[in-house]
Amino acid sequence: MIPASFDYEAAESVDHAIELLGSGREAKLLAGGHSLLPLMRLRLARPELLVDIGRLSDLSYVREDGDAVAIGALTRYHDLENDELLRTECPVLADAVGGIGDPQVRHRGTIGGSVAHCDPASDAPTILLALDAELVARGPSGERRLPIAESFGGFLTTALDPAEVLTEIRVPKGGTGTYMKSTRRSQDWATVAVAAVRANGDVRVALTNMGPIALRAAGVEEALASGADPAAAAERAAEGTSPPSDHNGSSEYREHLARVLTRRALEEALA
Ligand code: FAD
Predict the structure, then answer these.
(1) Ligand 1 centre from 120 Cα, in Å?
(2) Are residues 103 and 40 in the same domain?
(3) What CATH number has the domain bearing residue 234?
């Protein structure tokens, strides 16, 4: 399908992007375009103005910052997957983004775009949730930080203000573990996926596609904290979830997958 007509502006800086977002027209940021453009082609999104931030190279970086790794929102999956600092300080994230889509998707898609899009089948929000990542957003009234868990508003919805630009994602150093996903075909979106992460002495588990947003598997974490082994803890993986039923599987099948993948992910992460 052909998108509805729209105006286009290329932002020259983050401040310019914020100014354009506040210009009175219904505006959307364009980063890698791999989620927004398909929605526009289906006419599920009809912005009047596209503000292209895709060329803001100062939003593409991976840096050490105290006990965190700071990642520019426009950093592409391919660059994250191959970044030496991220591979050393947070290998679980570097590995997980290396399994997103196909090479073309990984060369265009940005980590910030994935977080801002908030698709429950996306991989980056889940792994960042397990890592307790922090987001940095800038808007007309300045900069603010918020935990990723507070940024999820609902299906394809976040707590970011429409006039804000997500500029940075901060993950604690030392995040190890695994991200396991089940797909019907290689390179498909996850039917269900599980992140099992060890960071700061904690084990955290988060789930993809088990509800309208990425979810922490609170029952599993509670069981592990009380001394349960991975197999027993994983039995609680579907607690508090509301997985969809679709052509990839029924909600019951997804609950089963969540338990199986959680056990396997925990066994690998804790080995
Ligand atoms: P865009 O499409 O440009 O933007 C998405 C939304 O985020 C828009 O609403 C936009 O306004 C907003 N936005 C973007 N950047 C910012 C910012 N800095 N601040 C505030 N708002 C912002 N994803 C997976 O996780 N796993 C997969 O297996 C997978 N497979 C895919 C397969 C295909 C064929 C395609 C086309 C996509 C796939 N994706 C997958 C999605 C891909 O990861 C997207 O690139 C990503 O979800 C969005 O990033 P983007 O940079 O393309 O964002």
Answers:
(1) 12
(2) no
(3) 3.30.390.50
Q: Which residue range is the domain that position 23 belongs to? A: 7-52
244 lines ligand 1 (CB under 6 A): no
Assess whether 243 and 140 both reside in one domain.
no
Locate 227 and state its tokens. Answer: 């001394």
Model confidence, pTM: 0.96
In this structure, are 163 and 209 located in the same domain? Answer: no
Residue carrying the six token digits 């983004």: 97
126 and 165 share one domain: yes
- Using a pLDDT cut of 90, give the percent of the chain over it: 95
**What is the CATH classification number for the domain harbouring 37?**
3.30.43.10
Q: Does ligand 1 lie within 6 Å of residue 101's CB atom?
A: yes
**Residue 60 Cβ contacting ligand 1 at under 6 Å:** no
Distance (Å, rounded) from C-alpha 207 to C-alpha 226? 21
* 72 C-beta closer than 6 A to ligand 1: no
> pLDDT tens across 200-225, in order?
778 999 999 999 999 999 999 999 99
Q: Is the CB of 96 under 6 A from ligand 1?
A: no
Q: Residue 51: CB within 6 Å of ligand 1?
A: no
Asked if 213 and 128 sit in the same domain, the reply is: no
Residue environment code for 184-216, b if the CB has 16+ CB neighbours within 10 A, otherwise e? eeeeebbbbbbbbbbbeeebbbbbbbbbbbbbb
What separation in Å is there between the alpha carbon of 32 and the centre of ligand 1? 6
